[in-house]
Design the sequence.
């Protein structure tokens, strides 16, 4: 994806915006219920469009009608996201559970898109064996082997081993002109692993992580000699280089390592957030986050993934509140979404996090570019 999904939706955001998210069935016979269910959802979306936007909303009806024809339900994952605005349609598949919802309004509902982005980590998978070293480029569950002048690396003996010969007539000792073969092979293998590590390093710029697989001897050697330890996400035991089909690369084991790495990074971020809070570099709660965000103080915003809240925006002051102000104001059924979209517009990185993990910050927090002023 050359353009980040949330920014693509932001670019094509024009009234009315329709967002449809629905769970789907991966296998038959459950998969058969998806087309009629989508048809019903589309009918409900049309009613909402007509009620809210009248003839303007009806202009999107043909796009909605084409959805059942465009979607291949044989490619189902856990869920489906459909995003439509005038002259724009985007179909996105999600590999995680969702709640069914239909929203019609001035902007797209993008939380599932943000969650998808967080799961689609860019990484590399290095498969080690005594015959070959392969490198795969990963993006979420998608893996593609790197084939260029660097990889794959074929491991072959670079010396000729001679059989032991008899010594002089003064003794029967065997003369080994090559020394110990196993030691030489081990040195050769380590040298090749060092070469592979050097070739790998440029691929890991900007803190891109990687996973290695192989028998314990190979992964142990590589872990010891690599200059990219800080990028090492995990180690998978076993030789997968000679396996064909779905086990090469080992997708399920890679998914496990990705999830563990994400959890670790989430914990590290929360520790950093709490440390920054002590240094007055964190805004917490809807009102405080909004004030800092609109004043350009935001660096990273983190929101509990299921945090929703109605709110009001004063047209006179631009202040956001949970209670309706006396002056003229805008009403938001979910002001959290509006804050998220504003953060994206201001190029603030947005992270979704597990529920109840931001309890001390009132479920939403903003890491600031500089310290808050002491009141």
Sequence:
């Amino acid at each position: 994806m050359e353009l980040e999904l949330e920014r693509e939706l932001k670019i094509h955001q024009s009234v009315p915006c329709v967002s449809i998210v629905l769970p789907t069935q991966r296998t038959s016979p459950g998969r058969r219920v998806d087309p009629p269910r989508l048809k019903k959802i589309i009918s409900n979306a049309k009613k909402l469009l007509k009620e809210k936007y009248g003839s303007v909303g009806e202009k999107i009806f043909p796009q909605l009608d084409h959805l059942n024809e465009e979607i291949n339900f044989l490619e189902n994952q856990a869920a489906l996201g459909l995003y439509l605005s005038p002259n724009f349609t985007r179909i996105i598949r999600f590999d995680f559970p969702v709640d069914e919802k239909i929203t019609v309004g001035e902007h797209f509902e993008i939380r599932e898109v943000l969650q998808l982005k967080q799961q689609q980590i860019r990484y590399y998978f290095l498969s080690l064996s005594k015959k070959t070293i392969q490198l795969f480029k990963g993006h979420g569950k998608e893996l593609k082997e790197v084939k260029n002048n660097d990889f794959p690396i074929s491991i072959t003996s670079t010396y000729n081993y001679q059989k032991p010969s008899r010594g002089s007539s003064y003794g029967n000792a065997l003369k080994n002109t090559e020394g110990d073969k196993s030691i030489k092979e081990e040195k050769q293998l380590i040298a090749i692993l060092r070469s592979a590590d050097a070739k790998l390093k440029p691929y890991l710029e900007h803190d891109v992580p990687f996973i290695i697989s192989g028998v314990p001897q190979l992964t142990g050697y590589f872990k010891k000699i690599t200059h990219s330890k800080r990028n090492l996400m995990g180690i998978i035991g076993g030789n997968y280089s000679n396996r064909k089909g779905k086990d090469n690369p080992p997708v399920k084991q890679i998914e496990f390592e990705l999830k563990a790495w994400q959890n670790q990074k989430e914990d590290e971020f929360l520790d950093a957030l709490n440390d920054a809070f002590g240094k007055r570099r964190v805004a917490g709660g809807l009102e405080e986050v909004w004030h800092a965000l609109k004043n350009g103080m935001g660096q990273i915003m983190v929101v509990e993934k299921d945090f929703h809240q109605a709110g009001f925006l004063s047209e006179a002051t631009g202040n956001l509140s949970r209670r309706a102000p006396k002056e003229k104001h805008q009403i938001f059924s979910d002001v959290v979404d509006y804050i998220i979209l504003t953060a994206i517009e201001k190029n603030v990185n947005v992270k979704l996090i597990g529920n109840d993990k931001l309890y001390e910050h009132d479920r939403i927090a903003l890491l600031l570019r500089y310290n808050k002023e002491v009141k």
